[in-house]
Amino acid sequence: MPGSWLLLAALLLAGGVLAARASRTRRELAPGLHERGIRDAGGSYCERHGACCHGRDDACTVPYLDTICYCDLFCNRTISDCCPDFWEYCLGIEPPFPVQKVCIRNGHKFPAGATYRDNCNLCTCRAHGQWDCENHACLINRDIIDAINRGNYGWRASNYSQMWGMTLEEGIQYRLGTVRPPTSVMNMNELQVSMDANEVLPPRFNAAEKWPGMIQEPLDQGNCAGSWAFSTAAVASDRISIHSMGHMTPALSPQNLLSCNTRHQQGCGGGRIDGAWWFLRRRGVVTDYCYPFTNQDKDSSLPAPPCMMSSQSTGRGKRQATARCPNPQAHSNEIYQSTPAYRLSSDEKVIMKEIMENGPVQAIMEVYEDFFMYRHGVYRHTPVAAGQHRRHGTHSVKITGWGEERTADGSREKYWIAANSWGRDWGEHGYFRIARGVNECDIEAFVVGVWGRVGMEDMHHRK
C-alpha cells in the first residue's frame, strides 16, 4: 500500500508539472505580437482597463485587434505579448519594439497591409503609414458628374450602381462591343429615298405610339460586349412585327446571335452588325424566350456558351429549327429571318421618314466616358471629361423616334430618341435622347434598316 501511495503521488506531481509546462508552452512559445513592430502604438489598452498586474496573471488580458494582449509583468520578455501601452503605462519606459505606423481613414487606424476600394481603385496601407492607391480612370466619375450637373449642357448625369467600381477601360471593353464594319461596308451605297421638297415631317414622332405593342422595350447586355447582337435583335424584332402588321411580334434572341453567329464574330467579346444581319438573313434566329440571354460576368473565366440552336432550309429561302429550345419551358422554336440590310443617307430627314414609314433603325455611334453617366436630357458630348484618361469606343443602338424642345435661351433643340441596351434603370428608362441633325457622336454616319421576311402564310397563320 505505501508503494501505491508513492506511485500515485508521483503521477499527480508529474501531471502537475506537465500541466504547468503545457500552460507555459501555450503562452510563452506563442509568436510575439510585435515581431514586426507595434501596431496601434497609440491605442489605450492597459490604461483603458486600468490593468497592471504583478508577476504572472494569465487572466490579466485585454482584447487587441484580432487576439488578446497582456498587462502583467510576465509579458515583458523576449517574445512579448504585452499590450502596446504596457511599457509606458505600467513601467513608465519606452517600448522595446519599433512602432509600426498605421494608416488613418475616416478617423480609424489600419495596420500595414489593410486594403479598401475607392470606386475602381484598390488602396493599400503601406509600412510607412501611408495609403497607396491605384490610379485607374473610373467608369463612374463623381467629378465629371458634378461638373456636368453644374454646367449648362442640356442633360444631367448620375451614378449607376451596376457600373460603380469598374474602370473606364472595363466599361469600354465590356459595356459596348460593336466593331466598325470594314471600309467596303461603310462605303456601301445608300438607299435612294424620294423626298418631296415640300414634304413636312412632324416635329415629334415615337414608333411605340404609332405601332403599340410592336416595339420591344430596351434590353440589358450586362457586362457582355455584345451591343452588335442586342441592337440587331431589337431592330429586327420591331421590323418583323411592323411588316407583319402585328401578326408576328417576336422578341428575338441576342443569345442566338452571340453563340451561333461565330463567323468573324467574338460573341461577348465584340462583333459587327453587318455579320449579324448576314446571319439573320441566311440562318435566322429564334425568340429570346426560346433561347434566353446568359449574362457572363466580366471576370468570368468560363468559355462562351456553345451554340444550342441550328436550322435547315425548307425552300424559298425559309428555314426551320433542327434543335429544341434551350429553355425547356419554351415549345416554339420558330425561326425568324430578315432581308438584307440597307444603308440610309445621313440626312436627318431621310432617317426620319424611314423610321416613320418602316419602323426603328439601327445606328452605330461613338461612346465617350460621359455618356455612361447620362441620366436624362438631350445628350451632347461635353468637354468636362478632357484629360489624360479620355477614351471612347464604338456602340450600336436602336433609334425609335425624334422630337424637339425649347432650351432656356429660347433656341430649338432637336433630338433623336434611341433605345440603349444597358437595362431600364439606365437613362430615361433605358432610352436616351441625343442631338439630331449634327451627327453627334457619329450617330447619323452609318444607319441601316431592314425588312422582316414575312410571307402570306405568316399573315394568315400567326394571329
From TrEMBL:
CDD domains per the record?
Peptidase_C1A_CathepsinB
The SMB domain, residue ranges: 48-96
Q: Could you tell me which residues belong to the region Disordered?
A: 301-332
Q: By its UniProt entry, which InterPro entries does this protein fall under?
A: Pacifastin_dom_sf, Papain-like_cys_pep_sf, Pept_asp_AS, Pept_his_AS, Peptidase_C1A, Peptidase_C1A_C, Somatomedin_B_dom
Task: Give the matching PROSITE patterns.
Answer: SMB_1, SMB_2, THIOL_PROTEASE_ASN, THIOL_PROTEASE_HIS
Pfam families (UniProt xref): Peptidase_C1
Alphabetically, the GO molecular function entries are:
cysteine-type peptidase activity; peptidase inhibitor activity
Question: Which Gene Ontology cellular component terms are annotated?
Answer: extracellular region
> Could you tell me the keywords of this UniProt record?
Disulfide bond, Glycoprotein, Secreted, Signal
Instruction: Indicate whether DNA damage appears among the record's keywords.
Output: no
Give the main location.
Answer: secreted
Q: Where in the cell is it found?
A: Secreted
Q: Which stretch is the leader sequence?
A: 1-19
GO BP terms in the entry? proteolysis
Family to which this protein belongs: Belongs to the peptidase C1 family.
Under what name is this protein listed?
Tubulointerstitial nephritis antigen like 1
UniProt organism field: Varanus komodoensis (Komodo dragon)
